[in-house]
Structure formats: structure tokens, C-alpha cells
Amino acid sequence: TCGVSCPPPPPPAPPAPLKPSGPALPATQLYTSSALGYSVSYPGNDTPSSNDAQSVTWSGTINSDNTPFIIQVKGEAANGRTAQQIVQSLQQSQLNGATLVFTISGAGLGYTDGYANIYDATISPQGGQQLHVRALFEAAIRDGTAVELVAESAFAPDKNEHPSPAQLQPFVEFLADTVGNTLTWKGETPF
């Protein structure tokens, strides 16, 4: 009735930002191969058991059942070999006689396509009792450098909770997947 249009009401205030609901995640650590220049990140609380100019390794026993495990990332010259040839050679040299369970479709390390197989075997660690194991052998090649990821643990049967086709121990599967996904090659921007 006053003849003047009224301005619209102000917009509502934005909601307050969410705050963390749990403890901070552990910082990540970085391994860089001084010989080949590739890098992998890993959770800061999972310290490698060894490393050198070409490789980084986690090994030990899993606390819940005291069974051994190993995860290793290693680089070398591809020398004209394909990722599949490298995987097959690794399996024959490290776990000869193992049975192929399946090939992982779409395998890769970091953002580089590769090749990977899951194997099943029975071993006798250090002359001890026989142990049913599962192993992952994976390789990817970029600019003539091959990087290989090997993970081996006791066979972990599915318990109808969260099925894992590889049937590696959950800790081993998690760490191997985490490390493999973070691979960056020499000259590539880290994640």
C-alpha cells in the first residue's frame, strides 16, 4: 500500500562446519627408490621391516594367529618383458608349484595398467609346520621400469562377513592395496 517494493529477506545463515568425530588419521610416510625413482606411500603406523635402493618390504607375523606375512614392492628394468611375463617369472622363482586361483582384471599400480594373479600354495616356513597360503603377484611397467608388488599371507577363509576373493589376511590385503594404489613413477606428481 505504500507504493514501494520491499527488499527480499536476507538468506539464512550457512550451517556450522562439521568437526572431526574421531581421532586424526595417522600421517602417511613415503618410500622413494633411490635407484629407480618410483615412490609409494604407506600409513605411518605400518613401518617397513626393510628397504634399499630398489625395494621396500613389510614382513612379520599377524598377531591374531602368529602366522607370517610379507609385502614387498620392488623395481627393476623391464628389459622388454611384459607385466604378465614378470608376474609369471616372480611366481615361478618365489612360489614355484603354486596353483593359479584367478587373474585380477583391470590390475594396475598407481595409475598405470598392469597384470596380477592370485595363487594358492602350501609351504613349510623354515622347516616348520605346513601352511596354506595365498599370494598376490602384480606388476606394471612405465618408461622401461617394472615395479612389482608381492603379498603373501596365510589363507583367510571367508566368514560370510565381507568376502574377499583373494582370501589374503585382511591386514595384508589392506596394506598391499593401499601401497599399490599410491605408486607414482619418476617424474609423476604424487597423489
Quickly give the structural class. Answer: mainly beta
Q: What is the count of helical runs?
A: 2
Q: Spans with pLDDT under 50 lasting ≥5 residues?
A: none
* N-to-C CA distance: 62 Å
Helix percentage range: 10-25%
Molecular shape? extended
**Mean pLDDT across every amino acid position:** 89
Question: What is the string of SSEs from the N terminus onward?
Answer: EEEEEHEEEEEH
Largest sheet: 8 strands, antiparallel
* Number of β-strand runs: 10
- Our estimate of the beta-strand percent is 35-45%
Give the C-alpha Rg. 23 Å
Q: What does this entry show, briefly?
A:
The protein has helices at 83-94, 170-181; strands at 28-32, 39-43, 50-51, 55-62, 67-77, 99-103, 108-109, 112-123, 131-142, 145-154.
Note the main attributes of this structure.
191 residues, mainly beta, two-stranded antiparallel sheet, eight-stranded antiparallel β-sheet, extended, single chain, 13% helix
Explain what you see.
With 191 residues, this protein is mainly β. Helix content is 13%, strand content 38%. The chain has helices spanning 83-94, 170-181; strands spanning 28-32, 39-43, 50-51, 55-62, 67-77, 99-103, 108-109, 112-123, 131-142, 145-154. The strands form two sheets. Strands 3, 4, 5, 6, 7, 8, 9 and 10 form an eight-stranded antiparallel β-sheet that branches. It has a two-stranded antiparallel sheet with strand order 1-2. The model has no long low-confidence stretch (mean pLDDT 89).
